[in-house]
Amino acid sequence: MEKEELFKSEQEKWISKISLENNFQLGAIRLVAGIDIAYWTEGKKDYGVCCIVVIDYITKQIIEEVEYRGQIDVPYIPGYLAFRELPMVIEAVKKLQCEPDLYMFDGNGYLHYRHMGIATHASFYLKKPTIGVAKSYLKIKNTDFQMPKNVMGDFTYIKVDGAVYGAVLRTRKDVKPIFISCGNWIDLETSIKITLHFVEKNSRLPITTRYADLATHESRRKYTQ
Question: What is the pLDDT of residues 135-155, one digit of tens each?
């Protein structure tokens, strides 16, 4: 419980500094990084690998890929996942030769109990705009979401107590939606626009986080053989 209180205090320190407004011009975005993490256990120790795939916004070509493998010392505690993942994210970012203009996370940002999902929390250390792209819904205060129309690009807002936390986005027809939330220094409409920009025909996910997700699975197989 003491660790949870420390984590909660750390999150609350940043909340007032979150900005759901763009601090950039969309035309200035050139390099966008997708980030994901995979875990496994060896003996009694937990390990993880963080993979980052940097993609050119215009050409959609991969510019750079890096990974960082490390032992996990922080247990999984609901609502405090960033404390488990952030150390690996920071170490992986250090290995990049290029400098991304924006980071997209396989996870939540503002759509979080205290608006401090991994995408938001990490932004204060990366000092770049961030977006949360989640495959599953984090239910807050027992609030359900309204399903968007079965049309690519349609979305509905996720509201909790009347406040917008994120959006349910249909990225492809006849495919389950995904859950988009601002990380920091970006608005929700721009977050949705950038996400849709990177969606291709073979997946409901943007290629940024999709490629990162594929990379983590491949790396985990490599390390656990």
Answer: 999 999 999 999 999 999 999
Q: Dihedral (C-alpha) 92, 19, 199, 221: value to the nearest 10 degrees?
A: 20
Which residues 6+ apart lie within 8 Å of 137 measured at CB? 145, 168, 179
Query: What CATH number does residue 210 fall under?
Result: 3.30.2170.10
144 annotated to a ligand binding site? no
Which structural domain range is residue 65 located in? 29-224
Alpha carbons 195 and 204: distance in angstroms, whole number: 10
Measure CA 90 to chain center.
Answer: 14
161 is in an annotated binding site: no
In terms of Cα–Cα distance, which of 34, 17, 163, 180 is closest to 109?
A: 180
Radius of gyration of the chain (CA): 17
In this structure, what token pair is assigned to residue 222? 């490599």
Residue-level pLDDT at 192: 98
pLDDT digits over 41-60, tens only? 999 899 999 999 999 999 99
